Amino acid sequence: MCGRYQFSEDSSPTLAQIIRELGCTEFAGEIFPSAAAPVLKAEGGAVRPALLDWGFPIQGKRLVINARAETAAVKPLFRDSLNARRCVIPSSGFYEWDTEKRKYLFRLPDADTLYMAGIYDLREGRPRFCILTTAANDSMKEIHDRMPLILTKDQVSDWIFDAAAAQKLLGETPPELVKTAEDAQLQLW
Questions:
Q1: What is the 3-state secondary structure (H, E, C) of the chain?
Q2: How high is the pLDDT of residue 11?
C-alpha cells in the first residue's frame, strides 16, 4: 500500500523542474492523502505536470488513495480512469510502516526520482488521483504485502499515452528498492 510519500525537490533536479513548470515557489516534504500534489499527465499531446488532489472521495467512506493494479480494469470506480486518464506521480520515495509502527522510506538505489503509476478523474469538482499498487517485491515483503506500481523514466510516456503498453506495465514486478528507517538516528542511541 502507499499511504504517504516524499517529494523533495532539493535532492532531485527532476522534481525541482516540475515545481518550476507548475510555478510553485516551494513544494516539498511528506505528501498526505487529500493533499494537492504534482502529477504528470497528458496535456496537448505532451506530458505536463499538474497539481491534483490525492484520493477519490466516496460518499460515506474514507478517501480511496490506492487502486490494485490487478483489478483496476474491472472495478467501476477505476475502470474508466485506467482506460483514459493515466498519470504518473513523481516522488523521492514512499513511506510504509512495519508491524511495530516503525516508519520506513523506500527509494530507488540509483535514482533521485521514483515514478509511481496512477490514474486520475474529476471528483466533486476537482481533479484527483489514485496510486496503483501491486504485490510487494522481495525488497518490500518484510514490511508490507503491497507496494506502488513503479515505472522507469522511460516508461512514463508509454504509461500515459499507450493503452496497450499500460496494460503490460500493470503486470510488471517493481524494481528492488532500498529502505531507510525514518528514526534511524534515534535508533543509534
A1: CCCEEEECHHHCHHHHHHHHHHCCCCCCEEECCCCEEEEEEEECCEEEEEEEEECECCCCCCCECEEECCCCCCCCCCHHHHHHCEEEEEECEEEEECCCCCEEEEECCCCCCEEEEEEEEEECCEEEEEEEEEECCCCCCCCCCEEECEECHHHHHHHHHCHHHHHHHCCCCCCCCEEEECCHHHHCC
A2: 79
Exposed/middle/buried for residue 54 (C-beta within 10 Å: 0-12, 13-18, 19+): buried
Percentage of the chain lying above the pLDDT 90 cut? 79
Partners of 46 in beta bridges: 43
| pLDDT at residue 164, rounded to an integer | 96
Whole-model pTM: value is 0.93
C-alpha cell at 14: 527532476
Could you tell me which of 175, 75, 36 has the C-alpha nearest to residue 117?
175
What's the alpha-carbon Rg for the chain, to the nearest Å? Answer: 16
- Record the cell numbers describing residue 149, joined without a space: 506500481
Per-residue pLDDT band for 24 (boundaries 50, 70, 90) equals confident
pLDDT at 187: 39
The answer to whether 146 and 131 are in contact (CB under 8 A) is no
How large is the average pLDDT for residues 80-103?
A: 95
All structural domains of the chain, each given as residue ranges with its CATH number in brackets, are: 4-180 (3.90.1680.10)
